[in-house]
Amino acid sequence: MSSHFYEVALFGEFFSRDLKAILNRITLHSESSHSMHSREIVFEPLDAQPQREAGNDAVVLRARKELDEPGAGWVLYAYLKPESARVHPEATVRPWATCQVVGDALSFASALGYLRRSQIYKKGYVFRRGTLVIQMFQQEQVDPKTQEPIPAHADTLWEVEVKTASPIRNTQETPLSQSVDAVLEVQLLMKGLLDLRRQDL
């Protein structure tokens, strides 16, 4: 058994015209929902390119802040490369760690030797279903002058992420297969409306 914590996830996307039908179906099969508006900044190590050239995978840091929650701090996530599709063909399973950062997460990431790679804003909905969180959002572009979000165009694709709400350990009490089954259940519920699949990020 590994000492890693893992995230189990499936991903999908759809056009705006299907929003109502998909929203209705997910709402029907969820315990709760609320709107979301978040800012995410992705960092990679200064030596990410040489690491890749040497055949190693750099640990990517993702800083996330909820904009709808006044006073919400940054949460920093560290992701490793997803496990191979041979081991987990049905869902994306990847080691991850999360860390609440008090103060300036961006300076903190820089101090760790990380560079800012990209920034996005996500706006949409979050649903809870048992141990899973389902995020449904459109990406907003960033105004280069103000760094503020520009509302998404009506035709912008919607993205869906179905994933474990908190990091899980692969133990006898909580085998990873339980979480894989949980995301596959959502895949089945959405069949015919939304194609959810594993992806290597």
Automatic annotation (TrEMBL):
Database matches in InterPro entries: Mediator_Med18 (IPR019095)
Question: Where does it live in the cell?
Answer: Nucleus
List the GO cellular component terms.
core mediator complex; mediator complex
| Keywords assigned | Activator, Nucleus, Transcription, Transcription regulation
Q: Give any single GO term for biological process.
A: regulation of transcription by RNA polymerase II
Q: Which family does it belong to?
A: Belongs to the Mediator complex subunit 18 family.
Q: How does it assemble?
A: Component of the Mediator complex.
As for what it does, the entry says: Component of the Mediator complex, a coactivator involved in the regulated transcription of nearly all RNA polymerase II-dependent genes. Mediator functions as a bridge to convey information from gene-specific regulatory proteins to the basal RNA polymerase II transcription machinery. Mediator is recruited to promoters by direct interactions with regulatory proteins and serves as a scaffold for the assembly of a functional preinitiation complex with RNA polymerase II and the general transcription factors.
Protein known as: Mediator of RNA polymerase II transcription subunit 18
Q: Which organism is it from?
A: Piloderma croceum (strain F 1598)
